[in-house]
Specification:
Layout lengths: L1 H26 L3 H27 L2 H32 L13 H10 L1
Helix pairs in contact: 1-2, 2-3
Amino acid sequence: MILYVVALSLVLFGALLCLTAAIGLLRFRDVPGRIHAATKPQVLGLILIAVGVAVSLESWAAVGFLVPVVVIQLATAPLSAHMAGRQAYRNGTLDAKHLVRDELDRDREVIEDEG
């Protein structure tokens, strides 16, 4: 009975984190905020849901199935966020005055001088 309560609480907390990620995508207006909302709580929510499912099923086969799902999510979420942020920077839709340090400005100047 205790394992089911633990599994239920993990799945519930993970679902709440995924819900906050979805709300953050709708509420935030700038690209960095949306990227943060799409990656951080969503990945943690998926991990908690996967652990909750593995605990409730009490099967090593379930763990063997869920581990690659979590690993692929951990590999692809930062990559997609990086690509979305980079594209927003290149399009000029990123608010540059809120950047603390612009490391890509130097590369942009070199590309513009060559072109």
